[in-house]
Amino acid sequence: MLTCTYSIRLIEKLKSLDLEEGGVLNFDLINNAIHWAKKYHGVQVRKSGEPFYTHVLEVAYMVADDSLKTDVIVASILHDIVEDTEVTIGMVLDSFGWRVAEMVDRLTRDRPDKSKLSVEAMLRYAHQNNDREVILIKTIDRLHNIRTIRCLPEKKKKEKIAETIRNFLILAEEFSLSQHGTHLYTECLKLNIELGVVAASDIKKRESVFDERPVLPLLVCQNT
Amino acid sequence: MQTALTREQKRAIGLLSIGTFLEYFDLQLYIHMALLLNNVFFAKTDPFNAALLSAFAFCSTYLLKPFGALIFGYIGDFIGRKLVIVITTIIMAITCTTITFLPSYAQIGITASIVITMCRMLQGMAASAESRGAEIYITESFNPPLQYPLVAIITVFSAVGTSMALGIGSFFTNERIFGTEHEYWRVAFLLGAIIGLVGGAARTSLKEASEFSHKKKMLKARFSDNKIAWDEDLVKNKFDQQKVSLTSLAYFFICCARSPCFYFIYIYCADVLKNDLALSASAIIYHNFWVSIVDMLGLLFLAYLSSKVYPIRILKAKFILFFACIVFFPIVMHSYPSESVVFFFQCLAALFVFDDIPASPIFYRHFPIMKRFTYTSLLSALAKLMTYVITSFGLVYATKYFGYYGIFVILVPVGGLYYLAVRYFDRLEGAKQAFHQIHSPSS
Questions:
Q1: What's the domain count of chain B?
Q2: In the 8-state DSSP scheme, what is residue A69?
Q3: Interface residues of chain A, partner chain B, Cβ below 8 Å
Q4: Quick one: pLDDT at residue A55?
Q5: Is residue A109 part of a domain?
Q6: What residues in A contact B431, CB-CB < 8 Å?
Q7: Which residues span the domain enclosing B65?
Q8: What ipTM does the predicted assembly reach?
Q9: What residues make up the domain containing A51?
Q10: pLDDT tens column, B91-107
Q11: Is residue B432 predicted with pLDDT exceeding 50?
Q12: Rg of chain B (C-alpha set)
């Protein structure tokens, strides 16, 4: 298997976490998923110029902090594979099992009838099925996309930010992914300030009724 | 995976448990001293007063709970869990103080009856909101599996409060010590008021439940910061209404189960002791006191067990054991009718009562955070009101026509719906998958 900094970093982290928990991960399956990501995403590149598979490996790296389960890690690595390559859900099912196929299917916006689901529809479907793991992967996928959004045109950036605020913040709270919701909000706010959509001086330091902790992240408070 | 509590968490659990103990102590104190106190605040000869007395007993326990659920549910969901916990403790303290110093019917007439009725109504609403607030607070502040025993401990303390009230009530109503008319009972309420005020003040230092933590306000602020218009539909659209409806129905059936079981243990069996075994009222109170002690120990054991065994499994086991034991009640009572046989079956029923304990955190988790308090409180209050009415009237006719077997006319359909509801939540949890997730550090 072709190794790279990203896959080495991911496997090292997983091994370290797995050691702490007494061996819960199936590394054969995870290595196979990495192999698939590199093989099928192949020469695809992101807008930043990096190989596309680096994105899915980074998502898996971040997901591991929340869910140290083989199926979830594998689905994170394969989350774009049906949408962006010739791989089908049937192939995923045969090689990685039912649950991974189900998660990848729920993360795929391109449907077999050639229609394309909106992000909102996709998230709502996962919500209807109470699939916290799919919501987790999609939220972290979006967080990584937002962190690496700088190469997109300004209009696209604004659309993506608005879509993120509308669709992910409430859902992150609903599924007890508050930390990721806060990260998404902070990243979007920083971008909006950079883009001139929001003036930094408009962001006031607020305190919740009971807690001494500020509602806004410290980083933004200090900047204002 | 969190296995031990931090110092602050221990303090929070202490404050919540003592508060719940107090709420139930204060609430039940009047019930167990009713014979004495109704004579102080009501006039038996006045028909209006007699009607007020019977309405008071029903309203204070069940009828006003749905209204209380709506009011406190709204506060809990839109302002905070902590505020409900603090307000309800203070309401309890104020009502206890009022009862302590309230002049008798002989002194101020009907005003005494009206004031005591209002105090009891407030107490009834506050007590259920307080314990639910404490349970949701713990559910949202601790992760599984630690949250299961911690939430169950709240129920243990409500049972301790009830037993303590029963003990104190029997003491102050003991005519051999105090005679038939005395004012010593006011000491018990004064004690409750003082502890309530201190507890309420101490609870203001609690932090808001970390999961809830003013979420809606925070989300609105985050939208506003990014110049995105807040739309209530955005929140609504995120929820699958049908799913919540099904979850609500399932939770309603689960809440329906406790009342008939409670009725069987403490009311139906008391009637059997009184009518078939000719026990006196004070002997029945003493008898039920020991049943409540077994009930309390059973809850304590369940709290411990929930740290080791997946709570839904415990619910299923309790359900099967309850029916496996109770099915023999009519047979044994026909052959060997005695107080000890009734006590034995009461204890078994109390130990295996099919209700939501210790799986309440699992049920709470399947309600959206911002609807959780209102939905669970209202569903529970409506379920209790409905089953109370059906059980108290239905059981009279059922036992009249079917004798001891009459209890199954109520228990079997309630049990069937309960089992289906538990299976529904089990499926929501994803059975094995959830169990592994709960016991893995990643959760």
A1: 2
A2: -
A3: 20-21, 24, 66-69, 120, 123-124, 127-128, 130, 161-162, 165-166, 169-171, 173-174, 176, 178, 185, 188-189, 192, 197-198, 202-203, 206, 208-211, 215-216
A4: 94
A5: no
A6: none
A7: 12-212
A8: 0.82
A9: 1-104
A10: 888 998 999 999 988 88
A11: no
A12: 22
